[in-house]
């Protein structure tokens, strides 16, 4: 055992966190730079100059970064533990709804009906008081806790049920898809108290700052960049820790790991829950930037799109998830602008091409090429 | 010859003679209506009612509705509804040319007589079905006159269903107007009867403070007896709805059970293959306007071929490269489903298309006043079971089925004995896809045909297969029917959406106890 451990590559947590992870260091450096440079280019550079970035672009980039964090959370469980979740959009949306509830409460009397406590849609539905689960959401710290805790609890319960009884492989994928589908149906109901079909929107301000203002948008971008950098560091820490080695072993030979004496279900539930928290944070940063959250975020298509970002970038490499999410979403923006009907053709073809010809994704392709050159 | 007999003879003879004369010249009789004198008209009306002529009912109906006219040119009496075609009142044949038309006006007294006469005519109609309808029609206005008609008919009635309806009608009247003893007898008669009138009458009697206590109690307990039956038939109806939903699920899932259960391939494009089948029906109906039913029948083999061909192409083009990597197969087929959806959107339109239902699929089978089964649901149930049986036979009784099972159990060994496994893979996948196409034909009769229809079935279908146990067609049958019935039993209490969510939660919990489904695969193949 000790001999084996010595022959393994030096584990990150023993030296610096990012030792040996060149791509990771580059990514974090880029993100930190972008967190400063992009807001500067938007706020300081005069309009018309080459360096200027429009507010639209800043928000778009911020959205991409949230998607990248979401992709990271899927890669953590799929790439490193072999759990293909087709319902991770649910955790993203739950985090988004938690943030949306805080933003709704901030509207106060500025809503169409001017009710100081009840959001517009509740007045519209003739509700006379706030449902209990909306209490406290006027306080930002409460919302922050909910953003992390709600997805975590849902993931824990689902994971505990699923992994304890050894639901694996495609069965788990289908069940996770059913989970997000069920949540979508539930959130579409007006009686749920989350705005039904329309969801939560018409936000006014966040922490007292106007949500439409350029400065707020720049700050949200910077927050997304920092969150992604932080998320990357957390994932790197997990996968290079001893726990991460066990998780990877579970992916490759679950039965053996169990036979050796590890409680496989504990590792899986833990990792699944952490991943759901990351997704929740991504959703919470996403909502103020796009200005709306509705049950469509729970749709199974959204969740499976996340998986294809990871597959395109290269699963099992954290950097791949980030690269894939950015690349596919950039492609989507370009494509839907040029030829809107063509996007589903392109996305569908991407699924097929990547799975059949590029099982290791873009990053895998690059690494192999570099490896061949070195050899 | 005794005087009585002689009198009878004379009356009989004169009746026969007058009937013959009236029948011989019904048209002349009708012309008697062309008068302004209501008393004369009344006499003629009663003669018409008593004539026994087959056109009598039609003429009286028209007279009462103000559709009866006298043709100025020929003097004939004709019928015309609104601005519709003109027909001869005496013969019912169309009138080619006519002059000005004068309406034959009936006053209120005549109308009332006509109603009575019509009821009597209908009550004595030769077809039992017509008589039944007439009796039920009288439930709403029972008075001395109509009840007298019912009593008269009761003595002559020989059809048991009409006799039962007559008894209900008389009981309804007795309950309202009769003596205490008659009321108790009527309550006894009405208890357990499902006709809405009977239930209403009992409900009123039970709540009527003017009635003596025991009568009210008897009515209440009779009503409770009826209610037991009503809730029983409600259950039966729920089960029927559940089975019909289950049949839809079975049709959608059985193709998946082959590709997923037998081959171990996750086909996320399964819903889109269903959609292709539905669109095949739409196209065939467009190509054969006027033959909706024939087009529907032809679409069954056509949809099988179209969807099956797509299936073979998908298998040869993509899935073949991904055997042994189920999660990748899942993603690739999901990509194919997106492409197929967009293809349909581009070729047809993003909007839903409507597929028409032929006449023989509409209507319903009325078993009793509270339970009627719609024909299209009955046909779907039968169709689903037929497809299922056929599939089981193909897999268990044909050489293709033998090879499919051989390859699914031990690919290497099957190849060693000369089974062309790649050919079998393509055929199996094509079979599963073709069955999905057939499901699409059936679904086109129940829901909208649109680019998104596949997505709404894919999750349900997977849940059926997972619940029933992969690799077992019997499990799919039981799973589909169970989920269908469960759904329909939850729906009244919780609403459709919540019922669906509860079923999902139920399956998630069920998988805890039986991770391999209701009917798990046993033996060596299970561990693979």
Number of strands of chain B: 6
DSSP strand content of chain B: under 5%
Q: Which CATH top level class of the largest domain in chain B fits?
A: Mainly Alpha
Order of helices and strands of chain A: HHHHHHHEEEHHHHEHHHH
- CATH topology-level name of the largest domain in chain B: ABC transporter involved in vitamin B12 uptake, BtuC
Major sheet details of chain A: 2 strands, antiparallel
Low-confidence stretches of chain A: 1-14
Question: What's the N-to-C terminus distance of chain B?
Answer: 103 Å
For the record, the count of structural domains of chain A works out to 1
Second-tier CATH architecture of the largest domain in chain B? Orthogonal Bundle
Tell me the helix content of chain B: over 70%
Strand order across the largest sheet of chain A: 1-4
Number of strands of chain A: 4
Structural class of chain B: mainly alpha
- Low-confidence runs of chain B: 523-528
Share in β-strands of chain A: under 5%
Series of H and E elements of chain B: HHHHEEEEHHHHHHHHHHEEHHHHHHHH
Q: Rg of chain B to the nearest angstrom?
A: 33 Å
Structure commentary:
The complex is a heterodimer of chains A (375) and B (528). Chain A has 375 residues and is mainly α. Chain A is built from 15 helices and 4 strands. A two-stranded antiparallel sheet of chain A has the order 1-4. A two-stranded antiparallel sheet of chain A has the order 2-3. Chain B folds into 3 domains: 103 residues, no CATH class; 86 residues; 287 residues, ABC transporter involved in vitamin B12 uptake, BtuC, CATH 1.10.3470. Chain B contains 22 helices and 6 strands. Chain B has a 4-stranded antiparallel sheet. Chain B has a two-stranded antiparallel ribbon with strand order 5-6. The radius of gyration of chain B is 33 Å and the shape is elongated. The C terminus of chain B is likely disordered. At the A-B interface, helix 6, helix 7, helix 12 and helix 14 of A face helix 14, helix 19 and helix 21 of B. Chain B: It is a multi-pass membrane protein. Chain B: Belongs to the binding-protein-dependent transport system permease family. LivHM subfamily. Chain B: It comes from wastewater metagenome.
């Amino acid at each position: 055992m000790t001999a084996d451990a010595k022959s393994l590559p030096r584990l990150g947590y023993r030296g610096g966190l990012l030792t040996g992870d060149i791509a990771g260091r580059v990514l974090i450096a880029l993100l930190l730079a972008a967190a400063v440079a992009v807001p500067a280019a938007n706020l300081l550079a005069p309009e018309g100059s080459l360096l200027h970035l429009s507010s639209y672009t800043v928000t778009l980039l911020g959205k991409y970064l949230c998607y990248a964090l979401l992709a990271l959370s899927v890669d953590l469980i799929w790439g490193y533990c072999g759990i293909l979740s087709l319902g991770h959009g649910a955790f993203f949306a739950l985090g988004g709804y938690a943030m949306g509830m805080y933003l709704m409460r901030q509207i106060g009397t500025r809503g169409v009906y001017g009710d100081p406590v009840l959001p517009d849609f509740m007045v519209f539905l003739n509700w006379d008081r706030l449902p209990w689960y909306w209490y406290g959401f006027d306080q930002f710290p409460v919302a922050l806790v909910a953003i992390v805790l709600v997805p975590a609890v849902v993931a824990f319960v689902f994971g505990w049920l699923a992994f304890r009884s050894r639901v694996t492989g495609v069965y788990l994928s289908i069940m996770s898809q059913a989970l997000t589908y069920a949540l979508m149906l539930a959130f579409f109901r007006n009686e749920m108290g989350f705005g039904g079909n329309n969801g939560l929107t018409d936000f006014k301000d966040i922490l007292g700052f106007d949500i439409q203002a350029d400065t707020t948008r720049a700050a949200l971008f910077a927050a997304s960049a920092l969150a992604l950098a932080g998320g990357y560091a957390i994932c790197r820490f997990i996968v290079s820790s001893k726990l991460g080695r066990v998780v990877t072993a579970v992916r490759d030979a679950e039965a053996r790991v169990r036979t050796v004496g590890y409680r496989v279900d504990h590792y899986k539930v833990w990792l699944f829950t952490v991943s759901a928290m990351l997704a929740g944070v991504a959703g919470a940063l996403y909502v103020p930037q796009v200005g709306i959250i509705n049950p469509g975020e729970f749709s199974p298509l959204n969740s499976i799109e996340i998986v294809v970002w990871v597959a395109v970038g290269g699963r099992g490499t954290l950097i791949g998830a980030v690269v894939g999410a950015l690349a596919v979403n950039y492609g989507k923006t370009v494509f839907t602008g040029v030829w809107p009907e063509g996007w589903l053709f392109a996305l569908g073809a991407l699924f097929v091409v990547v799975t059949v010809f590029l099982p290791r994704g873009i990053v895998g392709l690059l690494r192999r090429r570099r490896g061949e050159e070195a050899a | 010859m005794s005087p009585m007999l002689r009198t009878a003879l004379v009356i009989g003879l004169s009746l026969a003679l007058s009937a013959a004369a009236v029948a011989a010249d019904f048209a002349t009789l009708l012309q008697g209506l062309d008068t302004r004198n209501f008393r004369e008209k009344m006499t003629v009306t009663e003669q018409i009612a008593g004539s026994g002529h087959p056109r009598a009912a039609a003429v009286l109906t028209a007279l009462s509705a103000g559709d009866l006219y006298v043709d100025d040119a020929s003097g004939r009496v004709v019928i015309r509804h609104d601005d519709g075609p003109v027909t001869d009142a005496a013969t019912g044949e169309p009138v080619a040319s006519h002059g000005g038309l004068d309406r034959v006006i009936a006053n209120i007294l005549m109308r009332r007589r006509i109603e009575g006469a019509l009821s009597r005519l209908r009550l004595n109609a030769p077809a039992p079905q017509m008589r039944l309808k007439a009796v039920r029609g009288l439930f709403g206005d029972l008075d001395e006159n109509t009840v007298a008609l019912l009593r008269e008919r009761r003595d002559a009635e020989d059809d048991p269903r009409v006799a039962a309806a007559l008894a209900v009608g008389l009981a309804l009247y007795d309950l309202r107007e009769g003596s205490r003893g008659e009321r108790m007898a009527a309550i006894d008669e009405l208890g357990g009867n499902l006709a809405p009138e009977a239930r209403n009458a009992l409900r009123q009697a039970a709540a009527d403070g003017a009635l003596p206590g025991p009568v009210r109690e008897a009515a209440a307990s009779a009503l409770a007896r009826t209610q037991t039956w009503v809730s029983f038939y409600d259950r039966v109806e729920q089960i029927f709805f559940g089975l019909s939903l289950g049949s839809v699920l079975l049709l959608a899932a059985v193709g998946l059970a082959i590709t997923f259960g037998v081959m171990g391939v996750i086909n996320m494009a399964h819903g889109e293959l269903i959609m292709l089948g539905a669109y095949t029906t739409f196209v065939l109906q467009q190509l054969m306007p006027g033959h909706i039913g024939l087009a529907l029948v032809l679409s069954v083999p056509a949809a099988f071929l179209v969807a099956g061909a797509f299936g073979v192409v998908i298998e040869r083009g993509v899935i073949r490269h991904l055997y042994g990597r189920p999660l990748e197969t899942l993603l690739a087929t999901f990509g194919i489903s997106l492409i197929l959806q967009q293809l349909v959107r581009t070729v047809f339109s993003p909007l839903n298309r409507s597929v028409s239902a032929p006449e023989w699929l509409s209507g319903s089978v009325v078993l009793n006043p509270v339970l009627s089964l719609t024909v299209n649901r009955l046909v779907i149930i039968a169709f689903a079971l037929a497809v299922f049986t056929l599939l089981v036979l193909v897999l268990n009784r044909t050489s293709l089925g033998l090879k499919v099972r051989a390859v699914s159990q031990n690919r290497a060994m099957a190849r060693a004995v000369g089974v062309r496994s790649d050919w079998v893979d393509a055929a199996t996948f094509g079979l599963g896809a073709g069955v999905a196409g057939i499901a699409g034909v059936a679904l086109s009769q129940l829901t909208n045909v649109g680019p998104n229809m596949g997505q709404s079935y894919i999750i349900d279908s997977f849940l059926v297969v997972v619940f029933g146990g992969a690799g077992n067609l019997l499990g799919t049958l039981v799973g589909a029917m169970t989920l269908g019935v469960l759904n329909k039993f939850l729906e009244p209490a919780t609403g459709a959406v919540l019922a669906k969510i509860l079923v999902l939660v139920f399956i998630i919990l069920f998988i805890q106890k039986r991770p391999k489904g209701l009917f798990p695969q046993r033996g060596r193949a299970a561990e693979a």
